[in-house]
Design a protein that fits this description.
The mean pLDDT is 94. Helix content is 4%, strand content 47%. The strands form 2 sheets. Strands 2-10-9-4-5-6 form a 6-stranded mixed beta sheet, with no helix packed on it. Strands 1-3-8-7 form a 4-stranded antiparallel beta sheet. It is mainly beta.
């Protein structure tokens, strides 16, 4: 029933910035911890960033200091602000809960060129 829709990806050069958005059809974003996941080409999915219901955040070591996860005040949209992008950040990016209990959205592709 709950739907997740990711957007904001694109193709950028190394060092560029993007803001990814995740919109949910319900209040799920404000009721539980949310993650951004990514799957690089040919690799396993990994957790990029987490934000708890209380607003605490945690990040994958390789993106720490470059990525920021947040949600808006209405808790309708989850964001991932990315700066200093590197080619290794190239991946399909998804949002979901910690236990991934919501059907996956379509994801949004981020491609970073050298």
């Amino acid at each position: 029933q709950v739907q997740l829709v990711e957007s904001g990806g694109g193709s950028v050069r190394a060092g560029g910035s993007l803001r990814l958005s995740c919109r949910a059809s319900g209040d799920i974003l404000g009721s539980t911890s949310m993650n951004w996941y990514r799957q690089p080409p040919g690799k396993q999915t990994e957790v990029v960033a987490t934000i708890t219901k209380g607003g605490s955040t945690a990040y994958l070591d390789s993106v720490k200091g470059r990525f920021t996860i947040s949600r808006d005040s209405a808790k309708t949209t989850l964001y991932l602000d990315m700066s200093g992008l590197k080619p290794e950040d190239t991946a399909m990016y998804y949002c979901n809960t910690l236990d991934k209990r919501i059907p996956w959205g379509q994801g949004t592709q981020v491609t970073v060129s050298s």
